[in-house]
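The protein record filed below.
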Amino acid sequence: MEIKGTWKIDGMLDFLNGGYRKLDPASEDESEAMFAKAVIIINDTEMLTCLPITEDMSPEQIEQAKEEGMAIVDGCLVQSSEPIKFEDGKWFYNTGIQGDIMGEEINPWSEFEFDGEYLCTGMLRFRRA
């Protein structure tokens, strides 16, 4: 599956009921609403986590975000950037997890999983935007 491009969060892992739970961008839970609006943009070397610039954002808010170091890519404010790599025919993303377990160093790289039309990264499931 071609991984490069823009992906929208489709669901979050539901530990209580199993599978993935759809997220509602109109949810009263601010965290859920934010996640439901987020997108990831994947290129050859990185995965950008972004929030679309919406009509209700003022030019001042956008300028402030830029002053705070956020880049704008494809009409979105970049919240974070994680390295990715292609190795042995598979795509991996860097979880950022560091340390060791019982003296053995943790490998921060985790494989992207593909489930039909979906791309999965641990707790989140994405579909093409």
About this structure: The mean pLDDT is 91. The radius of gyration is 16 Å. Helices lie at 30-37, 59-67.
